[in-house]
UniProtKB/TrEMBL annotation:
Its cofactor is pyridoxal 5'-phosphate. This is Aminotransferase class V-fold PLP-dependent enzyme. It holds the Pfam family Pyridoxal_deC. It comes from Streptomyces cyaneofuscatus. Keywords: Aminotransferase, Lyase, Pyridoxal phosphate, Transferase. GO terms for molecular function: transaminase activity. It comes from the Bacteria.
Length: 509
C-alpha cells in the first residue's frame, strides 16, 4: 500500500442523517420494485397495508439485542419458541419435535444436511456420505454438500410432470446415503414431489428424509384450510424426519427468516456446534451464525402474530385465485406451454415453435422466450428466466403473491403484445466457433484475462482492455442468457462466479 493510500480516510468526516437517507432512497430507484405485484420473483408481497411498518418497528425494537446468548437476552428464546412452535403445529410435527429459527432457506437446508451427515456418521459409521436428491432440488443442497463434504447423487425427474421419480429415488439409496430429499414444491416448476413414497422408501432403508418446504411450508396448509386439495407432505408422514419452511416467503416476514424442524430432539442435537476448548466463553451455536441481531426474529414474530390464522387462510385463497386466473390465461395464449401442474403459487411456462404440417413437433424456442422476458421487462414486469437443464426446457418463472391478484389481467394483456414484439426481433443464434471453443475450455485453467474476454464478449463486466462498465449489465439480457445456455455447466459456473466477483470488487481510483 502506498503512503497516499495509507493516509487516505476510509470514510468522510461525517454526514447529516437526512442526506444519507436521501442517497439510500436514490440508490433504490434502479432496483426492481418489491411491492405492487409486478416483480414475479424474489419478493413476497402480502399486499396488506401497514405490514411493512409493523415489521420495521419490531425490527428496530430488537435490532441491538444479541441473539447469541438467550440466557442474557431471554426474550430471544421466547420469540423463537413461539415461532418454531407455530411452524411445528402447522406442519404436523409430533410431540417431542424441535426446531430452530434461521436466517433463510439456505441456512435451514445447510443445517439439515449437517444433521444428516453427523447422524449417519454416529449411528451407522458412514464416513463418505451421499445426498440423494431429485434434479429439481434447490441449489442450496449442492451448496451444503460442497461445504460439508457429501457427494450429491442426482436423480432425474419425470420429464412430463417435473416431479421426482420415487422408484428411481429409492434405487439410488445406498449404505452411504445420509439424507434423501423431496420438494414441496420445487422452486423451478412449482410442483410437489411425491413426498409420501419418497419418505417411505427412505424409512425402509433407515435413512433420514428432508422435505424442502421453504416455499410451500407456510402456504400449503393454509391452501388446504381454504378448501384446496393438498396431498400430505409434512410430519404427518412417518418417514419425514426434517423439514424447512421460510417465513420470509408466504409468511410475509422480511428477508432473513426461516425455520428448520426435526422429528425429535436427538436429531436436532447433531445440528448444534459446541466448543469449550478455548479460554473464552463456552460456545454453543444452534445455527451457522454466532452473534446475530434479534431484529429479524422479532419482525417475523410480529408479522405472524398480526396476520394470524384467518389472515393466512385469506391470503392463501388470494394466491390460489391469482394462480387459477393466470393459468387460465396462459393456456389460451398461443404457443405458450405451462410446465407440469403448478400447485403452490409458482408457475413456469415456455414458448413453443409451432408444430408443422409435416409432423414436426412443437419445441421450446429459447430465442423467442428470452426476447419475451426482455419485452415484458420493458413493460414493467419481471419474469425470471430459467435456462435449459438436462433435457428440461428453458422457461419463465413466476411467483404469485396476494398482491398479484389485481395485476394478473394487466400481465395477460401485455403478454401477447410482448410476444408479438419478441417475434419481430431477429432470432438469437450461437456463434458455432464460440460453441466449439467453449467445449474445449477447462474452467479451472482459465486465466483472469481469458475470463474477462469471454465476459466482455457476452456483454457482462469489462473486457481485458478495461472497456465496459464494471459489473455492468446490458439493457437487454436475451443475448447474454442465450450464450450462457449453450455453455457447459462448469464453464457457465466459472463465468458467473467471475461476473459476480466483478460486481463486488474494490476499485482503485
Amino acid at each position: 500500500m502506498s503512503p497516499d493510500q495509507d493516509n487516505a480516510p476510509a470514510l468522510p468526516t461525517g454526514r447529516p442523517a437526512a442526506g444519507i437517507l436521501t442517497e439510500l432512497t436514490a440508490l433504490r430507484t434502479a432496483d426492481a420494485p418489491t411491492r405492487g405485484g409486478r416483480t414475479f420473483a424474489y419478493v413476497y408481497d402480502a399486499g396488506r397495508e401497514g405490514l411493512d411498518e409493523l415489521a420495521a418497528e419490531a425490527y428496530a425494537a430488537y435490532a441491538t439485542v444479541n441473539g447469541l446468548d438467550p440466557t442474557v437476552f431471554p426474550s430471544v428464546a421466547r420469540l423463537e419458541n413461539d415461532l418454531v412452535g407455530a411452524a411445528a403445529a402447522l406442519l404436523g410435527a409430533p410431540p417431542g419435535s424441535q426446531g430452530t429459527f434461521t436466517s433463510g432457506g439456505t441456512e435451514s437446508i445447510l443445517l439439515a444436511v449437517k444433521t444428516a451427515r453427523d447422524h449417519a456418521r454416529s449411528t451407522r459409521g458412514v464416513s463418505d456420505p451421499q445426498l440423494v436428491l431429485p434434479s429439481t432440488a434447490h441449489a442450496a443442497f449442492h451448496k451444503a454438500a460442497a461445504y460439508l463434504g457429501l457427494e450429491p447423487v442426482v436423480v432425474p425427474v419425470d420429464p412430463v410432470t417435473y416431479k421426482a421419480n420415487p422408484t428411481a429415488m429409492a434405487a439410488a439409496i445406498t449404505p452411504r446415503t445420509a439424507l434423501v430429499v423431496a420438494s414441496a414444491p420445487s422452486y423451478a416448476h412449482g410442483v410437489i414431489d411425491p413426498v409420501a413414497r419418497i419418505a417411505e422408501a427412505a424409512a425402509e432403508h433407515e435413512v433420514l428424509c428432508h422435505v424442502d418446504a421453504c416455499i410451500g411450508g407456510w402456504l400449503l396448509p393454509y391452501l388446504r384450510k381454504a378448501g384446496r386439495t393438498v396431498e400430505p407432505f409434512d410430519f404427518s408422514l412417518p418417514g419425514v424426519t426434517s423439514l424447512s419452511v421460510d417465513l420470509h416467503k408466504y409468511g410475509y416476514a422480511d428477508k432473513g427468516a426461516s425455520v428448520v424442524l426435526y422429528r425429535n430432539a436427538e436429531l436436532r442435537r447433531h445440528q448444534y456446534f459446541a466448543h469449550a476448548g478455548w479460554p473464552g466463553y463456552p460456545v454453543v451455536n444452534p445455527t451457522v451464525q454466532g452473534t446475530k441481531s434479534a431484529g429479524l426474529l422479532a419482525q417475523a414474530w410480529a408479522v405472524l402474530q398480526h396476520i394470524g390464522e384467518d389472515g393466512y387462510t385469506t391470503l392463501a385463497a388470494r394466491v390460489a385465485e391469482a394462480s387459477d386466473h393466470l393459468l387460465e390465461g396462459l393456456r389460451t395464449t398461443p404457443d405458450v406451454h405451462i410446465l407440469g401442474e403448478p400447485e403452490a403459487g409458482l408457475v413456469a411456462f415456455t414458448v413453443l415453435t409451432p408444430a408443422t404440417p409435416d409432423g414436426t413437433a412443437a419445441t421450446p424456442d429459447l430465442s423467442l422466450l428470452l426476447h419475451l422476458a426482455d419485452e415484458m421487462r420493458v413493460r414493467g414486469w419481471y419474469l425470471q428466466p430459467q435456462l435449459s437443464f438436462d433435457g428440461l426446457p428453458p422457461n419463465l418463472h413466476l411467483t404469485l403473491t396476494p398482491a398479484t391478484v389485481d395485476r394478473v389481467d394487466a400481465l395477460l394483456t401485455d403478454l401477447p403484445e410482448a410476444l408479438a414484439s419478441a417475434r419481430s426481433l431477429p432470432p438469437i443464434t450461437a456463434d458455432p466457433a464460440l460453441t466449439d471453443l467453449a467445449a474445449t475450455l477447462d474452467p479451472d485453467t482459465l486465466t483472469p484475462e481469458d475470463v474477462a474476454g469471454i465476459l466482455a464478449f457476452a456483454g457482462l463486466g469489462e473486457g481485458p482492455d478495461g472497456s465496459g462498465g464494471p459489473g455492468g449489465l446490458p439493457e437487454r439480457m436475451a443475448p447474454v442468457l442465450f450464450l450462457l445456455d449453450t455453455l457447459p455447466a462448469r464453464l457457465k459456473e466459472r463465468l458467473l462466479t467471475e461476473f459476480v466477483g466483478s460486481v463486488f470488487r474494490l476499485r482503485t481510483p
